[in-house]
Amino acid sequence: MSKGTVVLAYSGGLDTSCILVWLKEQGYDVITFLANIGQDEDFEAAQKKAESLGAKKVFIEDLRSEFVEDFIWPAVQANAVYEDRYLLGTAVARPCIGRRQVEIARREGAQFVSHGATGKGNDQIRFELTCYALYPEVKIIAPWRIPEFYNRFKGRIDLMDYAEKHGIPVPVTPRAPWSMDANLMHISYESGILENPKVRPVPKGMTLPF
């Protein structure tokens, strides 16, 4: 018997692809939601991938206009710059994604929402405060804060092994394990060797938007 329906903020990357399959293992029906906020993405391929991994429904929504009008312009007007250089493109995108995520959850009668943000960063706060503000009774499944998940998956190498075992195609390799967030405003990378302060900031093969 299903434990309920979850709307997963889905990117098609390593974390959320594995989380989709893991949520199904836990007994949930999973609806995936992929926001088009200007990233270079094959949305048709992402939809087919989510369906092949067992998503009950797949929503792909074009949020580019509202991302610019409701989030980017106010951030620019407020001169929202972190430490004089980071324009917070990824940060302001999260509430935009979360807002539509809870709209879908309400419309589909889903009791849960989920995301792939880590349990130690700010993205989890951006997603969850948005969700609770707009859908106070919703329950949030944050796998990276659940012991059964983070004890099983110590990092991205474990996720890659899980993906290989379950036939999940993913766009990362042990040589290039970083995650990438791109949108109309900017692109950001994290994870892997990028978190080692001894490593130069731009490894060979990493594409920058300038």
From TrEMBL:
GO BP: argininosuccinate metabolic process; L-arginine biosynthetic process; urea cycle
Presence of the UniProt keyword Metal-binding in the record: no
Any single Gene Ontology cellular-component annotation: cytoplasm
Enzyme Commission number(s): 6.3.4.5
UniProt keyword annotations, A-Z: Amino-acid biosynthesis, Arginine biosynthesis, ATP-binding, Ligase, Nucleotide-binding, Urea cycle
PANTHER family per record: ARGININOSUCCINATE SYNTHASE (PTHR11587)
Protein name according to UniProt: Argininosuccinate synthase
Organism of this sequence: Eleginops maclovinus (Patagonian blennie)
